[in-house]
UniProtKB/TrEMBL annotation:
<protein>
    <recommendedName>
        <fullName>carbonic anhydrase</fullName>
        <ecNumber>4.2.1.1</ecNumber>
    </recommendedName>
</protein>
<dbReference type="InterPro" id="IPR036874">
    <property type="entry name" value="Carbonic_anhydrase_sf"/>
</dbReference>
<dbReference type="InterPro" id="IPR001765">
    <property type="entry name" value="Carbonic_anhydrase"/>
</dbReference>
<keyword id="KW-0862">Zinc</keyword>
<keyword id="KW-0479">Metal-binding</keyword>
<dbReference type="Pfam" id="PF00484">
    <property type="entry name" value="Pro_CA"/>
</dbReference>
<comment type="similarity">
    <text>Belongs to the beta-class carbonic anhydrase family.</text>
</comment>
Length: 188
């Protein structure tokens, strides 16, 4: 049985047995906050539990490394929507130690793309079209500085409400310990 079929079979039983009832909530976060964090599998349950969050408390946006690499991309749009449309009053940018983005080498990723069938001509066409793939795929050297960078991207965005605190933290993916990088309540 394929993974998809396993998921669909489980889901059928989940719905028939009404196991969803314990998760019913509204689209508005009870704790009025939005978190941008990494897509790392270790954080899936650890991060909310380490912050005393339950289903319905928070909006969670995920990206590789909790990085905002474009001020008008999808990540920033999600944060803006959470604030203006979904009643979030605080933003938390939460990176983590031992992040895979700290080891990303753009050239190696592009080699893997070619191995999976992406033509060299496609990569070159993107470069000639003005896409800097090396920059776009690049990770970071220091998670604290990366979090600080993302906090500044949000805090200084021209469409961001200056009254909204933007916090920066780094979590240990083994213990759940949070280290404060930026207290968004200061210097607003």
């Amino acid at each position: 049985m394929s993974m998809l079929n396993e998921i669909l079979e489980f889901n059928k039983n989940f719905v028939e047995e009404e196991k969803y009832e314990q998760f019913i909530t509204t689209k508005f976060p009870d704790k009025k906050m939005v978190i941008l964090t990494c897509m790392d599998t270790r954080l899936f349950e650890l991060l909310p539990k380490s912050m005393n969050l339950k289903n319905g408390d928070v909006k969670i946006v995920k990206s590789a490394g909790a990085v905002i690499n474009h001020p008008f991309g999808g990540i920033m749009r999600s944060l803006i929507v959470a604030i203006y449309e979904l009643n979030a009053d605080e933003v938390y940018i939460i990176g983590h130690h031992d992040c895979g983005m700290s080891a990303i080498e753009p050239q190696k990723i592009m080699e893997k793309m070619k191995t999976r069938g992406i033509a060299e001509e496609t990569i070159e066409m993107m470069r000639y079209s003005g896409v800097n793939l090396d920059e776009w795929l690049r990770g970071f050297d220091n998670v604290t500085e990366s979090v600080r960078h993302s906090v500044n991207m949000v805090r200084n965005h021209p469409l961001m409400d200056n009254e909204v605190p933007v916090h920066g933290l780094v979590i240990d993916p083994k213990t759940g310990k949070l280290d404060l990088v930026v207290d968004g309540n200061e210097n607003r």
